[in-house]
Amino acid sequence: MATMKDVALRAGVSTATVSRVLNGHAAPTDATRERVLTAVAELGYRPNVLARSLRMHSTQTLGLVISDLLNPFFGEIARAVEDEARKHGYCVVFGNADESDEQQRRYVRTLLDRRVDGLLVCPASDDPEWLAEVNDSGVPLVLLDRAVPASDAPVIRADGVAALRELAKHLLSLGHRRIGVIAGPENTSTGRERLAAFTSALAELGLAAQATQIAHGDFRRASGARATGELLDRPDAPSVLVAMDNLMGLGALEELRRRRLRLPQDVGLAVYDDLAWFPLFDPPITVIAQPTEEMGSAAVRELLGLISGERAKNVSLSAKLIARGSCGEHGGIA
């Protein structure tokens, strides 16, 4: 394997000149620079990135830990993070927590050991144990989608309060008075906040609390199917279901199909989070869409600001209701 000394000998210059050229500094002459670059190409020389990063105190890499790689929502965010980071000359190293606090801790520790310049984390839960290690390392941190109560790190998230209130008004206007909610886990900020915003909106609009039935899932497809079955088996089964996550929404659709129930004639369905194929269903699924691309891009920009020594801020982007046809928009309801 060629070394910097080999390049210097081939180009007829000092190793200091080779180093200056490779680090983007001015060479004595343009001809010298061309000789160095030609020697690099001919010898197939590759700089020791780790050694250079130690000297420069930067690896030009960001770490991203997402909650669940199988969830398209996080896949879209990861893509947006990678695209924005690339614009600024950074690479992204990914880790999938798989909604596990322990796995999240392992990935955070591994990324810190790899000397990433900054961390982006979509927390698996409220568990703050991993934060101490990040704080001790001094590596800048930005949270995505979910907050951790014990952290003062900036949070980039979608604000769904207005959209959930609009959904509540929409369902009531369609005649729904028995509403079943497939809520997320109570140990996540998004699980608690979405449920609180939606039930508060229903109460403010005059729906009796007992008319709202709730079953909790874990943001996974199987839990959505289980919660749907639980709600539909109750004596006063809901006329419409609201799944507070796209995978739980898919689970709800799976259970409805298993029971041979039709949308929206037998029961309606609305889902928090959009998927590319939801408009292709018959009927198309009514959703609350989150600005995933904007969230990922904003998270990278805030993190790069922290890396540069600037003060970062929380960023709240608006989610929006997209009424399609799965709640009885174009006909009767259950």
From TrEMBL:
This protein is called LacI family transcriptional regulator
Q: Name one GO molecular function term.
A: transcription cis-regulatory region binding
- TM spans (from-to): none
Family matches, as SMART domains: HTH_LACI
User: Which UniProt keywords are given for this protein, alphabetically ordered?
Assistant: DNA-binding, Repressor, Transcription, Transcription regulation
InterPro entries attached to this UniProt entry = HTH_LacI, Lambda_DNA-bd_dom_sf, Peripla_BP/Lac1_sug-bd_dom, Peripla_BP_I
Provide the species name: Crossiella cryophila
Q: Which domain of life is it from?
A: Bacteria
Q: Where is the HTH lacI-type domain?
A: 2-56
